[in-house]
Known about the structure:
Residues 18-100 form the Lipoyl-binding domain. By secondary structure, the protein is α+β, with helices and mostly antiparallel strands. The chain has helices spanning 25-31, 78-81, 84-88, 113-120, and strands spanning 2-3, 8-12, 18-23, 34-38, 45-46, 51-57, 60-65, 70-75, 97-100.
Amino acid sequence: MIFTEEHLWLRIEDGEDEITVGLSNYGAAEIGDAKFVELPEEGDVVSMDDPVVVIEAGSDAVDILSPLDGEIAEVNSRLIDAPEIISEDPQGDGWLFKLSFDDPDALEEFMSEAAYQKYIR
């Protein structure tokens, strides 16, 4: 798992040009209890830093930005009926979406778990 400065985790799927994206435990704690989530559509083409997910928690709505250029391969549709999964298990069942991408070199920009732990301290 690798991490972004925006408190997202990225898991590279075995031998695929696809990553699973979710909020880090720290990011989920910062947002608070998720009450509503708006997910992208499968097949949407996105650019890095495009807003792709909106999470409403309390009176705030937070935009989650795409970490890479790519295409939405899959969304975690369970979150529509149960957004609290994001808060309860952000680095597991609370994943947000899977993204197909073309530039594996772009992954070198992100932090290892150890570097991320230093970053959030």
